[in-house]
Amino acid sequence: MAAPVKKAVKAPAPARTAPVKAAAPVKSAAAAALEAAAAQARAALQSQMKAWEEGVRQFSLKKFGAAHAHFKEAASGPAAHIADKARSYAQICERRTSGPALELKTAEDHFTYGVERLNARDIDTARKHLDRALVLDPNAEHILFILALCCGLGGDGHGACENLRRAIAIEPRNKVLARQDPEFLVLAQQMPDLRALLAVDGAEHQ
Questions:
Q1: From its phi and psi, is residue 155 left (phi > 0), alpha (psi between -120 and 50) or beta?
Q2: Which CATH number fits the domain 107-201, given the four candidates 1.10.260.40, 3.30.40.10, 3.30.497.10, 1.25.40.10?
Q3: 206 to 3, 202, 203: CA distances (angstroms)
Q4: pLDDT band at residue 35, thresholds of 50, 70 and 90?
Q5: C-beta atoms surrounding 113 within 10 Å
Q6: pLDDT at 189
Q7: Is 71 helix (H, G, I), strand (E, B) or coil?
Q8: How far is CA 36 from the centre of its chain?
């Protein structure tokens, strides 16, 4: 009697599994902190600009008290060039609202006020007070340096060169500082004598 034929047994089909989704990249704590810092910096700059613009608006309306508050806020912001201007305008507002005229006695008094007026681009008043500061302290290299810039911005190339030359003679580092100053660099493009004064000479390469 023939043995019964065994039926082939099919292997069970493999179980179907749901496709695995790639995990979303996890942002590192450092990257998140950087993004947060950048967002904070942008917000601070926007706030500073808003305060500056409102200060200028109030100043133009001669509302010096209100303008002062906005300039003080802008002076504490991250953009240095806006902060510097805001401080200058805040001081003007203080004088306009304080009543009594400002008393300037010392070289530093006149120098500080001269710098303020220079920042406000009141060149004539700035030069007047810087000249007075220099009379009171003839060998003050920091006064000579700013007076040179004031002369240059006022179109007096000879005064710019002579005052800067004296400032460098007293403190040679002023030559490097002038080369790094954007306003001096612009003036040097317009004034050949100033450009020659700021040129790198052979001794500085040694």
A1: left
A2: 1.25.40.10
A3: 108, 7, 5
A4: confident
A5: 21
A6: 93
A7: helix
A8: 22
Which amino acid is residue 10, in one-letter code? K
Alpha carbons 94 and 85: distance in angstroms, whole number? 14
Provide the whole-model pTM: 0.53
Supply the DSSP string of 31-68, one letter for each residue: HHHHHHHHHHHHHHHHHHHHHHHHHHHHHHTT-HHHHH
Task: Calculate mean pLDDT across residues 83-107.
Answer: 78
Q: Per-domain residue ranges for the chain?
A: 42-98, 107-201
Mean pLDDT along residues 160-168 = 96
CB–CB of 114/130 below 8 Å? yes
The one-letter amino acid code at 106 reads T
pLDDT in tens, 43-80: 989 999 999 999 888 887 878 888 889 999 999 988 88
Token pair in block for residue 128: 């007047």
